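Hi R.,

As promised on Friday, here is the backbone we talked about, encoded as structure tokens. Could you run it through your design pipeline when you get a chance and send me back a sequence?
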């Protein structure tokens, strides 16, 4: 009788521990600690953008594949896809009084719960073995947690249905010749970090780790410790993805905040096929009631650059 009682207590305790572990794992699989490089050879500080005030003229640099500082043209004119429900989410606005670092016009993403889940822009681009993505962002001082942020996706090609092979698939393990993705986004750690959280990679690839609930949620890569993201100020965010040689664990990723290298990870087997390339960038604030009860949440973007070398912060003068 006493033996059975202990059995029940131990079983309940075990179930409780498993529940806590499982709750923590969804959306934030164990950080890629074992892949973190202790001494990185990547650059930091200023990069190719230093010579261009507010990115003016940066598109002409030989290593720049795509650039948009939102100063010219209509909303999303140089992008391929727009998520802008009822035309109420995205707008080009004037929020800066000085030219640097973001010029006169910026992209505003205003999400309204009950009406939309925010929105953003997608660009398909000519891939490269090592790709750098840099953008400026500002979280409104009232902005709460966001669900997902800026993502680079690998699609089978730039044409037809194949250009979408890297989209969707949340909670599922990718097939190695169809997709992989990595997103640089704020992570709120289940409300433990003040909104919007701390910077984090959220990555999907064919050999990713399984989550405790049996699904495959994006694996997390983040350096610890890290400061909380400050709202109400422009932040220069940049990330790098290096493709692996198929069948080898030699892929990489890294990110920088305001020119400071925060983390660099090696040993990632992103893909099984040499024709699968990271070739689409989605710049967005995807906001749902899973993470916020605020009716409206606003994020700003500017100075987007896709390049073959380190970009760094925009030039100031
Ligand atoms: Ca601008």
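Update: got your reply. Pasting your designed sequence below so it's all in one thread:
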């Amino acid at each position: 009788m006493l033996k059975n009682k202990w059995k029940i207590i131990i079983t309940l305790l075990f179930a409780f521990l498993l529940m806590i572990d499982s709750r923590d794992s969804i959306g934030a699989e164990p950080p890629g600690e074992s892949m973190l490089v202790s001494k990185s050879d990547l650059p930091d500080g200023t990069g190719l953008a230093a010579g261009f005030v507010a990115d003016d003229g940066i598109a002409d640099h030989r290593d720049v594949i795509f650039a948009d500082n939102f100063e010219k043209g209509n909303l999303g004119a140089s992008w391929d896809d727009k998520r802008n429900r009822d035309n109420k989410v995205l707008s080009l606005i004037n929020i800066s009084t000085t030219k640097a670092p973001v010029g006169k016009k910026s992209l505003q993403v205003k999400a309204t719960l009950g009406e939309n889940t925010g929105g953003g822009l997608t660009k398909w681009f000519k891939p490269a073995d090592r790709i750098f993505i840099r953008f400026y962002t500002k979280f409104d001082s009232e902005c709460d947690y966001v669900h997902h942020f800026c993502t680079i996706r690998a699609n089978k090609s730039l044409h037809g249905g194949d250009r979408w092979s890297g989209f969707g698939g949340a909670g599922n393990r990718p097939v190695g010749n169809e997709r992989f993705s990595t997103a640089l986004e704020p992570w709120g750690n289940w409300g433990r970090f003040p909104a919007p959280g701390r910077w984090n990679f959220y990555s999907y690839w064919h050999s990713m780790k399984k989550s405790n609930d049996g699904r495959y949620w994006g694996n997390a890569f983040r350096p610890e410790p890290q400061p909380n993201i400050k709202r109400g100020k422009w932040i220069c965010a940049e990330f790098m993805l290096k493709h692996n040689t198929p069948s080898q664990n030699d892929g990489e990723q890294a990110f920088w905040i305001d020119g400071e290298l925060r983390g660099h990870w090696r040993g990632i087997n992103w893909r099984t096929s040499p024709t699968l390339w990271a070739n689409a960038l989605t710049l967005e604030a995807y906001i749902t009631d899973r993470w916020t009860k605020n009716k409206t949440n606003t994020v700003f973007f500017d100075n987007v650059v896709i390049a073959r070398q380190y970009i760094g912060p925009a030039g100031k003068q």
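One thing I noticed while checking it: Confidence is low (pLDDT under 50) at residues 12-29.

Thanks again,
M.
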